[in-house]
Design goal:
The protein is mostly helical. Helices cover about 75% and strands about 0% of the residues. The protein is built from 8 helices and no strands. Helix 1 (about 1-40) runs antiparallel to helix 7 and helix 3 (about 65-80) crosses helix 7 (about 150-165).
């Protein structure tokens, strides 16, 4: 009986490792399919006019940065047949009040300290340079789609939980950081 359980766990672990490898393969193929021509043009191996590079770099980089999300989608589709429940859970707003309160308190506190700190040392207080509150939803959209937020579906949402289960939190974060740097 115990032997059968161990075999089941070993099979499950191999399958999970295979899924994680599949995620990384899809992620890197997608991302580098788009980034490699830009990198080669940047070092002069491919000839592209500066005007064209200026026009295509941002859109191509945005598409390339979707690699981890595409990898997660492909791995989940392969593993479970559908990715909808995963993305609904990832985008769910059901979390405790501390997750909503702490960022406001921490970021607000840091901003307040930075604003008042010069006065504590006898200097003039810095003018408050914060934009209107109505700018923040736009900033959020920009960060999600242009500032790396789109990558988190794959790195934090898919790879990290599986790697933490395998290696523990510290080693998993270190390994994923090294992989991400590639």
């Amino acid at each position: 009986m115990e032997k059968a359980r161990k075999q089941k766990r070993a099979i499950k672990k191999r399958k999970e490792n295979h899924q994680l490898k599949f995620f990384f393969i899809v992620t890197f193929i997608w991302s580098w399919f788009f980034w490699l021509p830009l990198a080669l043009a940047g070092v002069g191996i491919i000839t592209v006019s500066p005007e064209t590079m200026g026009k295509i770099t941002l859109p191509v980089s945005i598409i390339a940065a979707l690699g981890p999300a595409v990898g997660a989608f492909a791995a989940i589709r392969k593993e479970k047949g559908a990715a909808g429940p995963y993305f609904r859970e990832f985008l769910s707003l059901r979390f405790g009040w501390p997750a909503l309160l702490y960022p406001w308190l921490i970021l607000g506190g840091i901003t307040f300290i930075a604003w008042i700190l010069p006065e504590l040392f006898g200097q003039a207080r810095l003018p408050m340079l914060l934009p209107s509150i109505w700018v923040f939803p736009l900033y959020l959209l920009i960060m999600v789609f242009l500032g790396g937020g789109q990558e988190e579906l794959g790195w934090r949402g898919y790879a990290m939980p599986r790697m933490e289960a395998e290696f523990g939190i510290w080693k998993a974060n270190l390994l994923l950081g090294i992989i991400w740097a590639i």
